[in-house]
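Entry 14. Ran structure prediction on the chain below.
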Amino acid sequence: MAVTESAVVPVGAPGESEGARDFGPEAAERARAAHEGILRRQSARESAARTYARALPIVPVRARGLTIEGADGRRYLDCLSGAGTLALGHNHPVVLEAVRKVLDSGAPLHVLDLATPVKDAFTTELFRTLPPRFAERARVQFCGPAGTDAVEAAFKLVRAATGRTGTLAFTGAYHGMTAGALEASGGATDVRVTRLPYPHDYRCPFGIGGDRGAELAARWTESLLDDTKSGVPLPAGMILEPVQGEGGVIPAPDAWTRRMREITESRSIPLIVDEVQTGVGRTGAFWAVEHSGITPDVMVLSKAIGGSLPLAVVVYRDDLDVWEPGAHAGTFRGNQLAMAAGAATLAYVREHGLAERAATVGTRMLERLRPLTTEFPCVGDVRGRGLMIGLELVDPEGPPHPAPDGPRPAAPELAAAVQRECLRRGLIVELGGRRSSVVRLLPPLTISDEQASAVLDRLADAVSAVSSTGPEDRRSGADGPE
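Output, structure tokens:
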């Protein structure tokens, strides 16, 4: 059954208050029935692999900027942003105008990898934003439309260029859901990838944290590569995230990132940087590698580069471009609408200084959130970079490790309860990290100061509500917003 116009109302200006809309009794009942019917049918018909729909039982029908409206008339502040895809939020005017322009022009929407004015405009804008030293010798490969497709392409690229097969990856990594990308991610079970320690200040693998912990992680990497009996032959490449997103919002120290560049460069190991979620201003620089100043050999890009539509590319140093024609392809690598939306998004972020804005707003948000670690024992850590922010929920009664001053055990049930309480208050957040114990914020770069304050107020209120209830009370709210 389609949602009728009577079941929804247009989203208002970004400053309007969120929550249930002012429907009359009959309209409210129709809206609720439409909402519940869609949820029921989708639950019955969709794969058991569905994820977000389980924790977020809403039916979005209107959206603008930070705001989503559901079929039941409720309005939410969206700090999931398509897992970081929506750099400009929902339905930004420059994105809509770029898409309309292509549609109205009569241009073909699907042309494989043929040259088009739309593709040329996107590539030109992309190269304009890349770190200059990288852009000077860069080549771009359009691949399948998801970030995981770009990761697979990057692996194929470095294997072809080096003649080697192994891959170096890091604990806590997430690079996608296809076979090769999963092998390089932290949840791998059938491992053909060498796993290295990623520096983690709060849960340091060496129990030290800080600069010393990062230094030990770098030394371990060097030792593994230089020890002739380590069992690790020279690999085809190393892949890393400048900030681990799904791993729990863990920023890599800039000095450590520079060490990884030195280690790989001195051993002729191509360095692949996964900027799928960190790119396009998200971390407070246009590309997260700019924080450390390194020049990678390969960058994997997706999510925000398509301006909310599916698009993924691999950008790499020209001497790695040894592929024969057709060595890597994909039917939907030439998405004209995504390229138009992406070019508009890249230009808008660049021209309006939204990366710098993300750095400023993100710093303010972190400053307001950090006191929660002393106010609520269940908040173990607050961390992030730019507008990638995470709160790790812990069991305040659990034993610290390493004792006596280490972090408490992760508390996924508390994180899930905070997510539910946020939804009740009209705030959409994501979970990630080890055991899904980290509440993540990925708001659009266009978030206003007023909206940022509203997000923080609702999140703090949700944490307070969870910290004051027992386990049974927390479990009783598992069905989402009232």
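Residues 392 and 438 are 4 Å apart (CA to CA). Will compare against last week's run tomorrow.
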